[in-house]
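Tokens for chain A. Residues wanted.
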């Protein structure tokens, strides 16, 4: 099947000194599983499968965190600025920060920097895109006036993303709704 990798080659190494612990690591294209010598075949089979699963999860988390690096965030901002803001919003810096108490993200127009709460790492991409467009629009219009919302409303999922964030705020008992006030651009 396209896009799926074949099962890795597995090498099992047994040790008489190893009593209870099991570990695994990659050595090139091979996964080396270290087991106690006293383990029977059924236990070996169980632990090899378990360690392969653990390695996959760990590697997926590492790939996922790379996807959400500051560099990936900057690249996403460039794409969104081109698509919805005529390429005019160009931040000097953008980075993930510890969860903010009262905001999903913030922009400092004077320094053209954007900070995004790590709380947003697990939201759907279209919600993160809305937040980024919102912050990028502050580089063009600092306040939340009608001109600001004209820029933000170019993003087609603005209203839907605002609803998602309101629900997320309510579910987590966060006080982040003030940031969404005037989201439709009708009053600011």
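Reply:
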């Amino acid at each position: 099947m396209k896009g799926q990798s074949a099962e890795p080659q597995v090498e099992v190494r047994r040790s008489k000194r190893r009593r209870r612990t099991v570990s695994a690591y990659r050595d090139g294209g091979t996964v080396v599983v270290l087991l106690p010598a006293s383990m029977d075949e059924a236990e070996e089979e169980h632990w090899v499968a378990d360690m392969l699963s653990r390695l996959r999860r760990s590697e997926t988390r590492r790939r996922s965190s790379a996807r959400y690096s500051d560099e990936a965030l900057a690249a996403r901002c460039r794409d969104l600025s081109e698509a919805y803001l005529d390429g005019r919003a160009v931040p000097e810096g953008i980075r993930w920060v510890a969860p903010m108490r009262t905001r999903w993200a913030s922009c400092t127009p004077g320094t053209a920097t954007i900070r995004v709460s790590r709380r947003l790492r697990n939201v759907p991409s279209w919600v993160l895109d809305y937040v980024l467009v919102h912050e990028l629009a502050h580089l063009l219009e600092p306040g939340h006036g009608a001109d600001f919302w004209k820029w933000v409303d170019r993003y087609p999922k603005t209203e839907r993303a605002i609803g998602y964030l309101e629900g997320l705020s309510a579910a987590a008992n966060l006080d982040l709704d003030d940031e969404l006030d005037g989201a439709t651009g009708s009053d600011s």
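The chain has two domains: 9-67, 70-180. The CA atoms of residues 58 and 172 lie 27 Å apart.
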